[in-house]
Fold these 4 entries.
Entry 1:
Amino acid sequence: VSEGAPRVNRGGEGADRIPMSDHELSLFYRSVFLPLVRRATWKHHLSKEDARDIVQDAFLVAIQRIDATGNPKAWLIQVVDHLAINYQRKRIRRSLLTAKWGQRCETAPSESLRDIRESPE
Amino acid sequence: MIADAKGETLLRSITIKDWVDATAGTKVKVGLTTESARERAFRLSVEMLDGKRPDLNDDLPDVLHALVSLVEESSPSSVTGGAVEKYYSFIEGLSWVSDGFGEAATLKTRLAYQAWKSCLRNWDYSALKRWERLCLASLRCDQVIKEFLALPIDTVSDQIRRRFLLDRPTLLALCARLAVTRNRVPSATVTEAKELYGWIASHFEMIGGGDDLLYFLGEVAVSIAVSTRHLGHFAAADSWLVTAEHHFGKLSVAEPWLARVALCRLVGFYDVHQGHVVLNAIDSIDVRLERVGMVEELCLAKHLRAGALKATGRTDEALRLFEELRGAAHVSPDLRCQILLNIAEIQSFDLDVAERAVREAFEVVQTTDSAMSRASLFCLAAEISRDRGDLTEAAKHFRASVETYQYAEMSVLAAYVRVLLADALLLAGRDRDAIAEVAAALPVLERERVLPDIAHALALLRKCVDQKRLEPPVLARLRQQLRPWQ
């Protein structure tokens, strides 16, 4: 699943619960993570790496706000779309600024993906 | 459902937290890069066109996304129906493991849309209609888009509009929806269609223009024109038809759509009592529609011809045409309902036959959600009851018709049916109730002035209402003058 070893947190909050098994993590990877990465990649024209970060960010939002009794699938898609659109918009704005102000903009402090992404709210 | 071994959804905060914890600080593999997916998609397309069956492996979804992107990036004139058909059938035949997010449907939507666009440019009417149906059927599998399409466009925020309306299959779905609702709930359609028209027009350059956007502008303008005409605003309807012509005229293949606008314009003549104008021009419209193979529009033209024959007193010929259309293919439920209404009206000398046609039409109307057809049916059912001498039943049906027209915000037709109701109430000796109905109808008829020649009849009726004494001939005159418009 990962380029490094998955790190399952077995302590802290919810320690009395058995976390997802490797099999379940693999199922989650194939049936949730990858389809969302492909959506962000092909629908919003992002690189796979940017799409991965967008989806992981969407999961962070989901931990707090997803409602499994509603339509979690539709909700998660909307969060991914929203984050991807915001990211694209900021990327376009940044390239316009770069074109206008030149190299100085590219070396400005906040240029990593995480820095320029809007908060999930 | 996306579920674990116990059948519980994986989309719970606790499972998502497990995933986030497990993958924190790692770069999770994301499959093929877009570049390699595109290279493999190119090879796949060659294999598929050679009739080879592609290998199914974990990378296939990415390769298929890339394949669809390649089709989207080709110029519409180079997209061949045969190639798209092969890709489409392949995706349809796939047993896609864990497709909880509807990727297969998304790919089919995008492919079908490209094929539709190619048909629009290279003109193939039956293929155009088929791809439109396939595109919309797959699009509606997407729960998020389905929920968006259920919302009236004038009620959603600009941010949400931008998110959905930039997607062209969604625009196609909205245009198709307006084409249906314009004949069912015209008032709501006008509001919504004007919003959509404004949005597309103001974003036209920004979102890349093209034949398909021109088509959407023309089609939405037609929807506004048709709904406006149903509401009795004929001059506004005509100016929207001019707008539609302006957009359609810029299409690579303009003639089919211009012929359809010409047909819409002719319907306007029918509505203002000029059946003879319709009969003079309908042959040339038929020829134009036949030449471009627009079978559904040919049915509409035949219906219009039959209506004009009926309006000019040639009822035998009209009945023959309506009966032909009754069993014809390519007739929508809404049109079938109108055909049955006309048959019932022509045969109203035999109340049993007319009643049977009305009953059949009520069955058809239940398969649609057409307030307009339902209101017309209630009105005709009321007239049959009145002619049978059952004035209580007639008043009940007339009231149902008034309420349904009011629900559809068609105030002029509601006012017209109030005139018919007043007539029935007078016959029943309920003069005071009749005056109340006319008093409610008059302000609308006076304000809207749908037809120029009813001014005198309205003035006479106003005098009657002021004197609180209705004269049946005055009411009958107005009823007769309004009838052809209905």
Entry 2:
Amino acid sequence: VTLTEAIRRNEAISKDLSPFSVVLACGFTPMHMETFLQARLAEAMPGRQPLIRTGLYEDIPGTLDACQENPPQAVAIPLEWSDIDPRLGFRSSGAWTQQSLEDIVTAARHQLSRLSAAILALPKGIRVAISLPTLPLPPLFALPEGQSGAPEFLLHQSLTEFALAAGARPQTVFVGKQRLDSISPASSRHDLKSDCLLGLPYTTAHADLLSSQLAALLHPRPPRKGIITDLDNTFWKGIAGEIGPDQVSWDLQSKSQLHALYQKTLAALASRGVLVAIASKNEASVVEEALRRPDLLLSSNSIFPVEANWGPKSASIERILQTWNISADSVIFVDDSPLELAEAAASHPGLECLLFPTKDYSLGLKLLERLNDLCGKETVTEEDALRLESLRSNASFASLTRQGEEANPDAFLAGLDAHISLDFGAAEDPRVLELINKTNQFNLNGARYSEAEWRERILTGAVQVAAISYQDKFGPLGRIAVLAGTLNGDTLEVFSWVLSCRAFSRRIEHHVLSTLFQTFGVAEMQFDFLATAKNGPLRDFFASLIGSTPEGRIVLRQQQFHEASILLPHTVRVDRLNAAGKS
Amino acid sequence: MDELEQRLSNCFQTVFTGIDAAAIGAATPSTVAGWDSVASIKLLNVIEEEFQIEIDLDQISELDSFPRIVEYLRNPPAAV
């Protein structure tokens, strides 16, 4: 993005959109960073109006301290060496003598401690994106050509300690150095003349690229939930059906290390809760045998389901999506055949189709980085660890449901030995906001919240937030639903309600409403329903209760609910009712 | 306005939102609201992008009116 384009984009941002306030805490003249950051945020979050506040010149800790008075929703800190000590920049006349080096190192350590303390003291819920120094140190060490020494190491040590300390604060994230180095080469970042004459150290290109990284951290895209992979010449080298399951390879000796790196990447993502499935044109027995090999770098236990057949890949993908119960736009498909990718893409709009480059290792590395970009998660929750097992259970559940429902659905559900718990003291659990922000199908209105917005919402008025967990004889599903509403007289006004698609078909939604009517003794519940492109399952649920397709705000009276109700065989527990979402 | 002046006028309109197009030809910091030192830098960066040139920062203080910038663009200083 050029400066001209950024200015024009910023002019085009509608003032009617909901504002997203960001403090840009930088020690230099923030002019171009302000322009580019606003433009990049507008690009990352269409539908919002990014508003950038700049802070105090050469005083990042002071700018952060001021956030206590007037908290923004996010903070961006493009930190440079000159913010750590002016003598580490180019505008100061402070000495670089041997005698002063020790003082510079000591002063830098103190300033970084002050900075981390200011970050740790920021109000909860504010997202903070930090870039560690991107510009070169000035030539202050007076060492022979190309040599580093102790003072420089000590500066980097202090910087690392700062990053570890500040990064311990939730919602505090750092720009990745490797990625920034690849898109904005070190030699193209600094404009020394502009730095000295105007206090603008960045070239416009670097200001834009750094802003793009900060914006991506302040408003990250929801990660893709699953990867569907081909096998032959993708997961491993060779065609298992031709050379035999014991001859396919993924190692250095067989010149197939790229496939080993691919398996390791899948294993790393699977260990962080990303689903992995197989869609392969193969004999099922051949695939089964190959997946039993003990030297696989991604355990076959981490793969579910496996679709090995001679039908179209798109049909295999369709069955996998049904098993996972997620939509194509949450999933990536990797194959070495452009034809298979095209066939899958045509049948599944939104599916991200990536080519496995069997010969080109450089492109192969880009593929692995792309998989991390699309699927990587900042934090791993308890539910991430449970997801795969609960999907396996779900498959058994669905199979038994089909049989059971045909015979006696009430008896079948009663035999699940299911327990539901509603916890009213978990409103600030990150899983609660994660569920609200990533659930599509059973979602009251599609509203998404930043952590700051969520905190503000739940701390307003008599808000009740129920975090709902479920388990049955097939195992625990973990925290799978959230309902949030405001108690107003004898009405509960629900503004958010989501239920994970993993937990459908168990009457959990009925149990939740029944329990809330009973717990709060309200005569009616009102729901801020808004139809979205994906929330058909929730719309159908309400239609079954009120007898017509809802179109806007839904009013559900207690008597009406009970008249439409069905057998509710699970046990229900209510926890921490008095906590009521307040901290 | 010739083509060069029209392109320069567009740069002014990008940086100074709502500027009276008719007044651009005689624009100076005293006639344009918001034309301060910060806006000068932004304007010159936008001009650099539009004309694919690099303006020597030493000359910023001299480029303080539409006619002076036109003159600079028509007769850029020789590269050192």
Entry 3:
Amino acid sequence: VHLRRRRTDPVEIVATLGAHVDTSAFSASKQLEVIRASDMYLRSGGFSADEVIGSWKAAMSDVMYDGRFDVVRAVETWSLRDDWLELARKVDWTPRYVDERELFPEELSGHPWLTHDAWRG
Amino acid sequence: MNEAYRTTYREYVANQRDKDAAVLGVRAALSKAHLFDDLDPGWVQLVKVHNGAVAELHMARFGRDSAWRMMASLGALDEIRHIQIPLLIGHDMLAYDGNFDGTHKAYHTDEWVMIAARHLFDDMFLAADAIDLAIQLNFVFETGFSNLQFMAMAAIADRAHHHLFEKTPANIQTDGPRHAQIGHPVLRTLLENGSRERAQYLVDNMWWRSWRLFLALTGTAMEYLTPLGARARSFKEFMTEWVIEQFLKNLAEFDLDRPWFWDLFIEELDYAHHSFQLELYTYRITLWFDVAMPDRAEREWLNDKYPTLEMGSRRYLFCSEPCRWIFRHETLRFADHKSVVDRIVAGEAPGKLTDLHEWMGLEAPVETGKDLRRGLDPWHLDPIPTV
């Protein structure tokens, strides 16, 4: 299936696939799920590794424990622009080994020194 | 941060390739030998001055939000282009005029104009933290000055029939609005978090210093090196209609005050760049470009744009506002007075210094002033330390 560049809306993707298979039936039965990148990676506005891993686990376990299918396949592919752009520009680090003040020292990041919440925008 | 222009790296590369192709196309169309054919000689000097000026990298690492860092990363790539393009064009121009090595020397020479310009930019880009950089470079310098100046220079270059120079600032300017948008959200965040005083200081500080650079570079170039036929408006008109209007709009958006020195700045629009031009002309032997003395038509243009006090056939110039105030108060009392300069211009006193001594009744060197201690001050006689 060839998807035109920039066609990133899940509804459009499902519609385009519909020329080849009965996607509406597959979608209704959850045999096919297309998730917008921002809904997966920016669930609460910014990128959080914990949230993304949690979402994958939930989506896959839902299907695995459903018992209807022998095989589960998860494909991660980023649409070419809109969702990808949002993802790229809103990936913020979650420091674990240093605190935010050490990662962004006031001498270089400037003052007033504010926590990331103030800058998230 | 919530910037209006968003771009991916892929789009960035594609756009910049197209823009570079436009400059390189004009460059290729003009064989090197004809780069300066049909150009006004003053214009050639103007190009020399402008081929001289990597910001943003501090913000690419130390900016506080991912959108800020992404924009600054692309901005840093922009700045590298902005250096490479003039270096390339400047190199081509060496075949025409060896002084175009000033483009490259700008980064390391001790020439006084370059020291001053580097001091401003090094302080603004390299010695600044991410917040100061965003407000002073992006909000004040780019949004307030350089983006507008690049547009004006491209338009002037078009009228001066220099299409290569027209393409160069246009190529650079089109990057500006994208990374300049870092400034607004950073300023807004400062204001929302109780740092109004700091924000106002940063804006005032860089407005004044940008004005200083601008009057020296753009003011003199627009009115002394641009051929008369290519001038659409005076520097003062450009500042008033474009730069000031934009800046006041920006201040109003954030409810910031005008800088405390605003009245002085407005007053300077009439004379500061002309005074600097006098300095450039007087000390031209210390510059890497030639400096013009305006011809009769250019003087008329300048008089028209910057009217002075004229009474009868005489034009009066004043050293200060209080002197003008006193003159206006009792005009008849002072109107006929002639200073030494007036007398020299009228042919009543000699223009040659040695003759002028005699005219003033001073016999040189017996009677004329000297250093009080004849250069024999004790500190003066101390041996100069050497390595």
Entry 4:
Amino acid sequence: MLLPWEYGVRNLARRPIRTGLTLLAMSIVVSLILVAIGFIRGLERSLEVSGDPDVVLIYSLTSEGNIENSTIDASVPDLINASLGAAVSRFGVIHSSPELFLASRVALRSGESGFGLIRGVTTTAPLVRRSVKLIEGRWPGTGEVIMGRLVAAKLGSKPDSFEIGQEIEFEGKKWKISGLFAADGSTFESEIWCRLDDFQLFTKRQDLSLIAMLLPSGGNSAEIELFCKERVDLELVAAREQAYFASLQEFYRPVRLVAWTIVWLVAGAGVFAGLNMMYGAVAGRVREFATLRSIGYRRLAIFVSLLQEGLLLTAAASLLAGGLGLLLLDGLAVKFTMGAFRLQMDGLTVLIGCGIGLVLGLFGSIPPAIKALRAEICYGLKAI
Amino acid sequence: MKLFNILILAAVLLCLLGCGESASTIPGGPTSANFDPKWIAAEAPTDPLNVGEAREKVKDKQPIRMVGRIGGSPNPFVDGVAAFTLMDLSLPDCAGGDCSDDGCCTPEELKRNLATVKFVNDYGKAVAVDARELLNVDAKSKVAVEGTAQRDEAGNLVVLAGRLYVYPAE
């Protein structure tokens, strides 16, 4: 016969301070796990949504896959548009976006500064970069920029530093903010966009970093890839944007491995914290267990009741941590080398975090429960 | 007797392993469902030009026999099309990847010794099957191709190929 469900629940309330402290400790452990998993999921999502399956990037063969290092001749877009008919064309406008992309020190009026990612674009950019939506203001004119939603996080400054009409400075020139844009959480959101001709003028560069071309839905990029192979003199390489970001996922694999290591280390520490708490909790209850056994409850019934207590406590801690995570951590901007992304407290993150929390409760309860039930009834009844 | 049996078994195993190895490296062997032997030449063409030499000598629309090694970039193939880049045999193997390594060729050297090979159908269009599958070749395979040269003003050489010979692995 098992002990009544209420017995375990009431036991938790009998020692409110101990229960409260255990709950707090487990909540912190689960919260740390949630932060680490949210970081991994956020980074993965940011790179996943950044790659449009219908967009092909053309960049320099010698850039070794890093677009910031890429430099191609400014005549290449015209050459490609004249030679190939692969890109989407509507009303005579070819959906091909020549871009100059680089990192530069950005100074704010408040005196703060940091390395920002700046992309010089033309009016064809929104036709190709379909996730980008202007959410406030207007398209930049001469000497103006539009800012992604995560630029503040990337620069480590306050979001109110980037209001429309304010000025920022980079490449030795003051630029006025004319608009703000969103891009479905992709890496574009941590970028500053300005007019390509302006950017080339102030960086004293005539070249481009890349050309992004939009193919018809499900279109084949082989024609573009073949063109790049045939024109050896141009030193170009073409890659699907999705494949490019998939290669970045691979590049950031060590970061994700470190984050997962942190998850397991924190979880391991959580198991030991749980063990410690549960040992303390059952140590003073040896007489109670002996009494239960003397009135007829079997060891298994008491063991199950102890597991129930541990699981209830960690379930509550997981719920608390999950709730706090969703309220306080979800969407929190995190800065990293190639931009910024938001912590992702989605269903999977909460499921993994809470799952680990429950496992901690289960495995944290088993050893102390075994130890407590090993004592003989006669000795247990005499225990102080 | 027991030792003799073990020796026999070991010999049979070694033979089997040896057979497996050679079967997988037969150049041009039919390993893919898209493999088409009609593109494969039974014998190597006589006096083929090396890639660098061909870039200097061959004119537009001239018939060409060229030998080289598939490479020139980390991915010398074009996905979904029977085309690849061929580099001069004098270039080191590392030219297939990172040319910035010490002792390897410079990008300029690579450009002077690189050509594109494209297998075309009767209409002059590139065959829409990946070269790795159609021809059973891989990066760094030493091959010879026969076809027609296509030159442009920038000096690029594209071979519109009809036949390929894969040299046995050295």
